């Protein structure tokens, strides 16, 4: 079934529009949870059972849904169960980082149908479009799918995102900020742009540690401090889509210059770049440690994984550096905790490989900074999805927007 754009549905006759909306409602409910009987879909859509069954027959003929079994009896005939076919729709999901991007194709069961493909790019890369199109072509070859089978593209990226208009206000070149419009030149399909931290939060809420929670903070602890907030069960975007700029809380007046152009932001004392800078300074001072011995002659090769690995081996310098970084992060987290009173904080990013060497100092610092009756019920955990949370979140976001009622402005 062809997915219509809003401008197409605006030109439909009333009867045609009602029929199309019913089809989309049924697809949306089966996307959320399959299998389901026709009676469930009739109740959810407030449409008669014969009408729903007629639409189900249409969608079976079009190979959008299928019969997947027989449900338990509730006193009468056992109901036929319907499910959304996994191969009905495919989308491409892209997650752009500070230096590299990841991409994969997903079916409408939110399953990857290709391996994750990594490529070098960033939000200010003048060749971002060309690189992404090249990866798209490679993924098509790997999957064996035709270009016409890919019905939408979703992209998450760091920055201040206007998701309605597909604009990233953080991109340095004003002419390049209209990401959706730029991508539309290469892809003649619906395109959705979102903030990377929010997509990681969405991924965690559907597949990860944040399932069945209503108030959770998801932090991508990397070059920046990307924050996705789940408040009262919803992904929180703020008034204009700019909520979650945790990196740029001003913590130290007259502190170090941040990449945003201001001084003393949390990012300058708690990011992974801060960890590397501190480690290289200690190595330059020849502080006795396994880390120094290994990287004294090649400090440029030092990365976060090396520091976390040496901490696990008992290297005192590495443990001390992680303790300091974690305490700095907890300073910022304490502000969020006092403001939002979350039930869970999920940490993601390369530094979380250190496990207890970050969790213990964070908890110790929070016990010092926060009120007892607030902090005592908060869990702080490391993501089990890891690098997959963002891409999975993008896939969910795209399908939710594809299947929603185009006459509304509903989000997640």
Characterization of this structure:
This protein has 412 residues and is of the alpha/beta class. 41% of the residues lie in helices and 18% in strands. It has 15 helices and 15 strands. It has helices at residues 6-9, 14-32, 38-45, 49-61, 128-143, 179-184, 196-207, 267-270, 272-284, 290-295, 304-312, 316-340, 356-369, 372-375, 388-403; strands spanning 36-37, 65-70, 80-84, 90-96, 100-107, 117-120, 150-157, 161-162, 167-168, 191-195, 216-221, 225-231, 234-235, 344-348, 379-382. Strands 6-5-4-7-10 form a five-stranded mixed sheet, sandwiched between helices. α2 (14-32) crosses α4, α9 runs antiparallel to α12 and α12 (316-340) crosses α13 (356-369). The longest helix has 25 residues, at 316-340. The radius of gyration is 24 Å and the shape is globular. The chain starts with 5 loop residues before the first helix and ends in a 9-residue tail after the last helix. The mean pLDDT is 92.
